[in-house]
TrEMBL record:
Belongs to the peptidase S66 family. This is LD-carboxypeptidase. InterPro entries: Carboxypeptidase_A_C_sf (IPR027461), Class_I_gatase-like (IPR029062), LdcA_N (IPR027478), Peptidase_S66_N (IPR040449), Peptidase_S66C (IPR040921), S66_fam (IPR003507). Residues 10-127 form the LD-carboxypeptidase N-terminal domain. Keywords: Carboxypeptidase, Hydrolase, Protease, Serine protease. Pfam families: Peptidase_S66, Peptidase_S66C. It comes from the Bacteria. It comes from Clostridium gelidum. Residues 171-285 form the LD-carboxypeptidase C-terminal domain. The keyword tRNA processing does not apply.
Amino acid sequence: MDLLNYGDKVGIVACSNGLDKSNIIKMTQLENTLNLIGLKTVLSDKIYRKISDFNGTGKERAEILMKFFKDSSIKAIFDVSGGDLANGVLDYLDYEIIRHNPKPFFGYSDLSVILNSIYSKIKIKTYLYQIRNLIEDYKNKQIKEFKSTFMGNGNELLNFNYEWIQGNSMEGIVVGGNIRCLLKLSGTEYMPDFQDKIIFLESLNGDVHKMTTYLTQYKQMGVFKKVKGVILGSYTEMEREKYNPSIIEIIKEVVNNTNMPIIKTNEIGHGKDSKCIVIGGGIEIT
């Protein structure tokens, strides 16, 4: 994909919950790793918690993000946070400035709200991926695939294994992310248009009741009548605890349409070995 070149400067932000200061060592490891693969890092001064989970107000966190978008020397922005607070920055982002200063923005989990808002407002692709994977359990494989995919001509980090639940082909533009967090955009100007899209949904926490509730809300919003396909990512708690019914059984019952293409992958989500999916990017699966 060749998004980044050796020597490029990248920004590190935390637009959702601030990190506990116990993560300082890990953040130093991340900086060192990015430096070793040829990227120079610029860290936000609002990475760590100050009050409760807050590392600044929504406006303050948005100002940092906008500063990085406006800085032409920064070629990509990686968000290292997650949690609950990312939607607090949405009203303070200047989407026209982002439109005229486009650069790859990466995040996962609660950052689904920013990833989808940027695509929804200005049709710029964003990347559902956690850069901290480069220093976690599968770091050697992650570093290799990151370099090949985003600093070379490979696409390993974008290719994922899957199984068909129903149907045999789907094609469209991907929207979505964390099943719970994306719902925070309901009723706002930031929710993407689902018409003819492929919706991707994953989850870290949540039992059968929560997954059923979330998927029912998507159904009642008319999402499953608009999209051309569903990609289920990993459902960490559901799959770890082997809850019954499974996420596959729940989605089939809620969608209640055998003509809707659905696939399941365990390779995109909250796992430290997770791959990347492009929000606003086209996908064709046959």
